[in-house]
Amino acid sequence: MSRSLIVLLLCLLPVWATAQDQGQRKSDRDRRTEREAIQAQKVAFITQEVGLTSEEAEKFWPLYNEMDRKLNELGHKRGRTKAEIFHVLNPSFGTTGRGTAPAGSSEGRTAAGDHRASAEQARVDAKPKGPAAPIDALLETFINTFTEENDLRMEYHRKFLKVLTAAQIARLYLAEEHFSNKLFRDYINRKLDERSKPSRP
Description:
Elements: H1 3-50, H2 54-89, E1 109-110, E2 113-114, H3 116-125, H4 135-161, H5 166-196
Antiparallel strand pairs: 1-2
Helix pairs in contact: 1-5, 2-4
């Protein structure tokens, strides 16, 4: 490669990196806009399903949003702990070949037979390398997130009872589930529509 071409590539690298960064920021902005749109739909859906008056809505939504934020934080904690557990059980993941197996090996069916089960057992029994957290501590943290979630939901259930009737709260819980199911169905339908569209040559 000629020296002038190398110099040109080095000059263009910051421009390319900036373009990539702007594309990422736009993507983040799009995702934030989508989340806000979904949140607005959820508020409208629940308000209608529960039959909230403007006075009830004024008292209820700050409580609900507070609970929702705490549940999201708890979900992130659970996800991080699950990821740590995975890395303790699979210390070589991503370091050799694909997945956790040494490069060139196979965990599937071979001429010698199916040895996937033994391969899975070997991964679970492998002792973690390095300063990874003990698996028992991680498991306790993971399981405790479910207790924390239950306690949090019970705390806000009691707070909801101070501003809504029991029947309204029952409708709230059903509306949350219906809205989640609707989002899932809409997502599946969008994916099916995308697959059914003819691809451009």
